[in-house]
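Methods — Computational structure assignment.
A single polypeptide chain was analysed. Its primary sequence is given first, followed by the predicted tertiary structure written as structure tokens.
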Amino acid sequence: MFLLNNFVFLNTQPGPLPASDKAILDILEHDRQEALEDRQDLVNRLYNLHEEVRQAEELRDKVTNTHHRHTSMHRETEVVLCSGVTSQPVSCYS
């Protein structure tokens, strides 16, 4: 008796396996190897997609921070430029 991926095979005959059983085991082993390779490909793809998402989020955060700083600087510049000769800063949009 031996175990192959949750399948129990009983070898009721002593000695080597019959050719038909050997062929079935070879097919099962080949299918198992292909499944493992496919699984590894999926794991690699998932890792790469996760890395792309992380990089995109990092870039988004940088762009958002830059935009906020630019907007803040723009508002401060408007207040100074639009205040004119008055002693109190005035927004150009009021």
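Note: The mean pLDDT is 79.
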